[in-house]
Amino acid sequence: MSKKVVNTTNRLKNYWWAFYFLITLPTIHTFLKKDNKPNLTGIVMLEKRPELNKENWFSGYYQKQTDDFNNDHWAWKEWMVRWNNQLYYSLFNEIRVNGFVAIKDNYVISKSYILSAYGDDFIGEDKIKEKCRKAKVIQDSLKRKNIDLVFLIIPGKGRMCEEKIPEKYKHSVKATNYHVFVKYFKEYKINYLDLQKWFVDDLKKREKHLLFAKFAHHWTNYAECLAVDTIVKYLEKLRQKPFPHIVWDDVEISDTPRSRDADILKSMNLAINPSYNEKYSYPDYGFEVDSSLEKQKVLVIGDSYWYGPVYMGVNRYLFGDGQFWYYYNKVIPTPKPGEKVEVWQLNFRESIENNDVIMLAYSDGNLSNLGNQFIEEMYLMYTNPEQFTEYWSNKQQLQYYARQIRETPEYLKKATIFSEENKITIDSAIIYLSHQLKSNPAFFQK
User: Fold this and answer.
1) Quick one: residue 208, left, alpha or beta (phi over 0 = left, psi -120 to 50 = alpha)?
2) Which residue from 6, 50, 345, 431 could staple onto 65, CB 3.0 to 4.6 Å apart?
3) Average pLDDT of the chain to the nearest whole number
4) Which residue in 201, 226, 215 sits closest to 281, CA to CA?
5) Helix (H) or strand (E) holding 116
6) Phi, psi (degrees; rounded to nearest 5) at 302
7) What pLDDT is recorded for position 163?
8) The whole model's pTM is what?
């Protein structure tokens, strides 16, 4: 064999060894690195390895869960995920956040708010009319106890940033949940405050401060302050009683977002974050303190838009330490310190009637499921108490398993995969899997 052939063969062997080393380097790094949990937002991961025992081994459960754990915790996962997301974002303007899309001028938005703006999530006039009829019965029943029911319509990013939406999403609008709900709120004389109309028709045209930011899912902190001030004044007029007020003198202008003004950017898990190129406004706000005022306790039931006012202290300082029931599920603040409490665990009637105002605060993108069954359950409680008692008992049993799914990373990951495969919401997936878990406690061991 010639010397040239030998040298070529040696070089090829060296290349192969180098190739093998490169493909095994992540595995080697994973074994050598003590903490391999990636710093990623919005990704459900297994927290610990499965227990090795006879039952888990022979059922195949241990092997599958170990594969999932290793996939979640290998040393280069964060780096690979971030650069994979960066590639899609830089080349195709596509973000890897479930349910969100990138639109014009680097704006990001939940697709549900585009659908709501053009009526693609319209649930039908008959359903809305019936829901409003029941709401009227509830409003009258509560009023007899000197409790007011109020619906708060929060502006969605689809309507507020409609000029940023690409043409492929646009079409003529026949009907939207928003317009039909407003129609029947008026017809049934239901208490409501339409912030969307105020923001879209008025503030958007004249307000110099930013109301919706590029990389935020919700309204800005400045918009929240405007909204809170208006809500308090509306409730004062409705109740004919004074409330404490939010006040501010100065507004700080910042080049860097705070609070939740870039919350989606974190979930995008990019390797290199894009520039903001916006001016953010932050009022130096405070709350009036007047011990002579009679406390008005307001319970807020709503979507994630209301988290901002909660963080600000609105429920505590303006709403008489009233609770926030997040999507009619999680109770904030918890009535049992150190323990998570959900609505189904409460004495329902007592928890409702211990308030002066019940306010349902939903953005237009969530009007298709306004109340998250609160309206239907309240109606049943006031019109058929015996049937409600039976219904509530069954609900408590089902919600016990739903909570197991939400709080067990392994179960939640399977629910997330199930929702993506079947193109349904994560909440719908959890409800379906709760029924399965209720009938077969070993369902997730399959």
Assistant:
1) alpha
2) 50
3) 86
4) 226
5) helix 111-117
6) -175, -170
7) 94
8) 0.83
